[in-house]
Each structure stands twice: as C-alpha cells, then as structure tokens.
Amino acid sequence: MRCAKKGGNACAVMNGANEEAVAKFLADEIGFYDIYRLVSRAVEEVPYIENPTLDEILQSDALARASVIKGANA
Asked: Quick one: CA torsion of 50, 33, 21, 70, rounded to 10 degrees?
C-alpha cells in the first residue's frame, strides 16, 4: 500500500522484487518470511524516481531483482 501511495517507480520496484523473492521461495532457496525482508530491502535500496520513463521503470525492476538476489545470497 505504501508503494501505491508513493507512486513513481515504487510499484515497479516492489513488483520486481516480489517476483524474484517468490521464485526463490518456490525453489526452496529462501524461507517464507524472507520474502518480506527482501522486498522491503529492495524498495529501500533502489533509488526513487517520481516520474520515471519506461526505460527507468525497466531499470528499476532489474535493480530490485538484483537486490533480492544479493540479499538472498548474503
């Protein structure tokens, strides 16, 4: 809900991170409660852009996924 209220690229970041985290959970690479931790971390790490272009949205998604991968391997 916070990402929807914030707007900008926040929802793209949250969505990309969530997809990556859920995939890792389904592959038994992380626990269920790690999903929230990793998604929250990505939302905090990826720079916020108020009026992103399509390229910036795609880049935000990629950065969010990379954040989850990095966090899951830590």
From this structure: 80
State the Cα torsion 17-35-44-54 to the nearest 10°: 10
pLDDT the model gives residue 1: 73
- CA dist 21 and 66 (Å) reads 10
Q: What angle do CA 57, 62, 63 make, to 5 degrees?
A: 95
Helix (H) or strand (E) holding 50: none
Counted residue by residue, the chain has a size of 74
Token pair 């108020």 in the structure block, residue? 50
Model confidence pLDDT, tens digit, residues 16-71:
999 999 999 999 999 999 999 999 999 999 999 999 999 999 999 999 999 999 99
